Structures are given as structure tokens and as C-alpha cells.
Amino acid sequence: MSTPDRPAQFKPPAVDPWKGFRGVCSGTLILEAIVVFLGIPAVAKLGTGIDTWEIVYLTALGVLMILACGVQSRSWAMGLNLGLQVAMIAGWVIHPAIGVMGLVFAAVWAYLLYLRKDIEARIERGLLRGQRD
């Protein structure tokens, strides 16, 4: 029961509301890793070719994105995701096409941050399906 000095208490959701969100984040990372791996032959064909360090950078970035899918339940996962995004945008040094794709995915991650904030607000207000009687 709520009083003026104490807000209403909602029961916690019956199912984990973050499970779907973590899945979307993992799926986004997989899609981004595919783009990075497909960027290697594209960069090799465009311009003057690709150096060994550029192949190593893009391969390491793609592998890190795949590995990051497994830690989405951790509290620091979104920070890791955004750090990988910065590394993707920094790929502009390798080829502008990589940087542009980084900017495209930055828009996706900005929307995911908005969704995370919306989910948190819905949990606080008790509006999730599993929180209702």
C-alpha cells in the first residue's frame, strides 16, 4: 500500500525482463561482427589494398564482438558494447567505409540505450506484463 512518504511497491516481474534485451544486444553484436568480417575483403578490393595490421585489427574486433555476446548479463556489458562501437568507428583510419558502418551501428546502439532506459522506467512504474496481477 502506498502512502505520501512511501511510493507504491510493485512485485518483481515473474520472468526476467532483461532476457530479451540481452538477446537483442547479442544479435546486434553478431550482425556487427559479420559486417566487420565482410569488411576485410571489401577494404582489400577498394583503394590500395589492406595491410597485415589492418587485417589483425578487423579480425580482433570481430572476434571480440562475438565473445562479447556471452557476457551480456554482466553489469559492465553495455560499457563493453559501446567501447567496441568506438573501436568500430576508429576503423575509419583503415577505410572510411568501416567508419561509416561504425556510425550506422552507433545509431542502433543509441536506440538500444533508449530502449534500456524505457525498460527501466516501465519496471519502476510496474507496467511490465509480469508485474501486473
Give the topology string: H per helix, E per strand. Answer: HHHH
Largest sheet, in brief, is: none
Overall geometric form: elongated
* Helix/strand/pairing category: mainly alpha
Provide mean pLDDT, rounded: 87
- As a percent range, the share of helical residues equals 55-70%
Number of helices: 4
Count of structural domains: 1
Strand content: under 5%
Radius of gyration: 19 Å
CA(first)-CA(last) distance: 14 Å
- Low-confidence segments, ≥5 residues, pLDDT <50? none
Query: Could you give the count of β-strands?
Result: 0
Please, could you describe this protein's structure?
It is built from four helices and no strands. With 133 residues, it is mainly alpha-helical. It has one domain.
Structure summary:
The chain is 67% helix and 0% strand.
Label this structure with key terms.
single chain; 133 residues; DUF4233; 4 helices; mainly alpha
